[in-house]
Amino acid sequence: MPDPGGRRPRALRPWPRKRPSRRERYWVKPSGKRLGEVTAADLLLVDLDGRVLAGDREPHGELPYRARRDAEAVIHTHPFHTAALAASTGQFEMVSQDSVLFAGGIGRFDTAQLILTRELGRGVAEALGNLAVAILRNHGLVVAGTSIEEAVVLAVSFERSVATQLAAEQLGGVASLSLDEVEDLAQSIRARGQRRIAGLYRALASRVQ
Ligand SMILES: [Zn+2]
Description:
It is built from five helices and seven strands. It has about 210 residues and is an alpha+beta fold. Zinc ion binds near residues 76, 78, 139 and 140.
C-alpha cells in the first residue's frame, strides 16, 4: 500500500491474536472435489505434516498450519477480483473499512504453480509470514484466521476491498485512506472485535443456507 505519511503502518489487526494453537490435527478438504460439493463426510483429518489420519482421499495441497501456530483455520480460494490482483502488477490499496484489516500488508507468493509439494507449501507459509492474507501469483488467495469465522470474514473482506479498488480505478482513480484514517478505523473495528466477526459471519452464513 502507499505510505502517505512517510510512516510505515503498524501491523494492524482488528482483534488481538490468540496464543499459539496446540492443535496437532486439522480437517481439510480433499483434492478433486469443488468447495460447493464438499460435505462434512468428505473432510480428511491430517496432522501438521499433512499425513492423512482419517479419510481415504488426498488432501488439497499443503497448508501452512505448522508455520502459523496461531491459525485455527486456513482458507485457500480463487475469488475473481483477488485473482485479477494476483495476475497484475497492481498494489493493494486502502480503499474502505474492508481494506483496513490488511493495513499491515499482504503477502505475495511469486509462482503460478499449484501448491502440491511441501516445498511450495513452505513458500506460501513464508509469503504469508505473520500476515492475515497472501496472494499467489496468477492463482488466488490464502487466509489465516484464529477461527473459521475470522478466516471467512477476512477472505470475504479482502475480495470486497479489491473489488472496490478496481471499481474506483475505473471511476477515475483511487482516493486512498490516509494512514491516520486507517488507524482510526482500525481502532473502531478493534473495539468491536469478535462481536463484529460473529455478526458478519452470521450475515454471510445466512446467504448460503
Ligand atoms: Zn488454488
